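hey so u asked for the seq, here:
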Amino acid sequence: MGETIYPVPSAWAADALVDDAAYRAMYRQSVEQPDAFWRDQAKCIDWMRPFTRVKETSFDEGDFGIAWFSDGTLNLSANALDRHLAERGDAIAILWEPDDPADAHRAISYRELHADVCRFANLLKAQGVRRGERVTIYLPMVPEAAVAMLACTRIGAIHSIVFAGFSPDALAGRITDCDSRIVLTADEGLRGGKHVPLKANVDEALAHCPGVERVADEVSLRFPEARTAIVTSDTLWSPAKAAEFVEAVEDGLVDIIIGTQLVTKGYHFPNLTLVGVVDADLGLDGGDLRAAERTFQQIAQVAGRAGRGVKPGEVLIQTRVPDAPVMAALVANDREGFYAAEAAARKFAGAPPYGRFAALVISSEDIEVARGVAQRLGEKPPVADGLAIYGPAPAPLAMLRGRHRFRLLLHAPRSFDLQGAIRDWISRIDWPTKVRLAIDIDPYSFV
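ran it, structure tokens below
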């Protein structure tokens, strides 16, 4: 497959902020003097509290860590908007084209966008959104989506963007994964002339989300007189808040505790006699090899909160798969039996630690290029006793950050030189510059 190179027009080159010589000099400095290079680059943005440290990295297994500008503080929204107001406030920040080209476009200046973002940020604060809280954004491609993102960054909230074409099930999974209690959406979206019922999708998704707020709503309807405490990372965000919660429970001021995994361990309440686990099998979904083990540990921990005093305790588990080995082991309180069965299942399947897996993900912005490379790789596989190769096939996340992804899976005996085989394998084909290869040895998850 050939590549076409389009020369840069001379007028563009003359107006460029960085020419070829300057680029090469900058690249050379980034390699030879990375701290100095990134210190200079960081001066291009505004800092609320200037940094003194550029980067702190350690790749030692016992002290692994990567940090950039760790003692500095900045705000993304302020850098995107506020710094432009004085001299470029009336310049166009967003030029939005509608789904139908015949409809009117919108030109939004920095000053107008700044005002919209500030209003939206105040709205989020009025709804109780605080720094560090997760907000799900499920909006069509409209300027308000950018406003919502910038409003979140302005107040320090973490935003999770979900593509507005995703189904209610896909949306529910993403809301659950990031433990979000706020979803920003619209009545509907328009994509290619097709109406997408966004609000209806959100309503359906929330009906399947096991969020504590949904449980709290149900509790308030069934037990209107009960005094409840919601325990999440958003409500117990400091040692003082945690101590306040413990004191309220010990003083008998709380009848029902509704919480996330934050309440599964570490608390001792002698008068707590009943524990209920909602959607106990939620963690079993997906491709995590440790799913059963993690589910067992977490439910066993929260079950241990009941009956810690002289009063007997009871534990109720809600599950869609009561016959699953992990659920049977939990009901029987058979820890040793569960781990023996889990080890036997892994040994039978040749899963770690009894075997080895590897995932190769080929990605490109061009789907045909990615597919072609994956197919060529699949046509020249390594051959060895006990080695099995599956694929290529579209990855579970077939599209990620604008790149099409195809995956091959390798399964080998424990003693097999997996890395050596992969090195030899990938050297057998030519790799276009547009293609990226990600290799995950013994992955925890197949998603």
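The radius of gyration is 27 Å. The longest strand covers residues 388-400.
lmk if thats what u needed
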